[in-house]
Amino acid sequence: MNTILDETKKALDAATTSPLMDDFNMVVADVEALLKETASQSGEKFIEIRNKLDQSLKAAKASMAEAEEALLVKSKVAAKATDAYVHDHPWQSVGLAAGIGYIIGWLSARR
After folding, report:
1. Could you tell me which of 75, 82, 81, 65 has the C-alpha nearest to residue 12?
2. Distance between CA atoms of 55 and 57, rounded to whole angstroms?
3. Would you say 8 and 80 are in contact if contact means Cβ atoms under 8 Å apart?
4. Within a 10 A sphere around the Cβ of 79, how many other Cβ atoms?
5. Is residue 97 in a domain?
6. 9/71 Cα distance (integer angstroms)
7. Tens-of-pLDDT digits for all 111 residues of the chain?
8. What total number of domains does the chain contain?
9. Is residue 107 part of a domain?
10. Could you give the CA distance from residue 49 to residue 34 in angstroms, rounded to a whole number?
């Protein structure tokens, strides 16, 4: 059971370090740097835009954190359900895995 959860955690760690997440984190870092660099600038419109950008950045960070947490919870539930199914129905699981392997092999051989 712990093996499936460990593998799921590894997969999630890989997902959170995907190029998309790297790009998002780079954009966030750039926006934060821009906000810091323009902190001394004045002007009513400039301050309004900077504040709106800061609020949008905070909302994006919160949204990504919520999405990551939801993904983690759903993955743990799926891993536990899969583990329970495999323990309850070992031969059906072996048959299903063999069938999926056969289909993947057949599809890759066609190329």
Report:
1. 75
2. 5
3. no
4. 20
5. no
6. 11
7. 456 556 656 665 665 556 667 777 777 777 777 777 777 777 777 777 778 877 887 887 788 888 888 888 888 888 888 888 889 999 998 999 999 999 999 999 987
8. 1
9. no
10. 12
**pTM score over 0.90:** no
Sequence letter at residue 84: A
Q: Which domain holds residue 49?
A: 2-79
Would residue 56 count as lying in a domain? yes
Looking at residue 98, what is its pLDDT? 94
Residue 63 covered by a domain:
yes
**Is 79 within 8 Å of 4 (Cβ atoms)?**
yes
Please state, in angstroms and rounded to a whole number, the distance separating the CA atoms of residues 13 and 46: 39
Q: Distance between CA 74 and CA 55 in Å, rounded?
A: 28
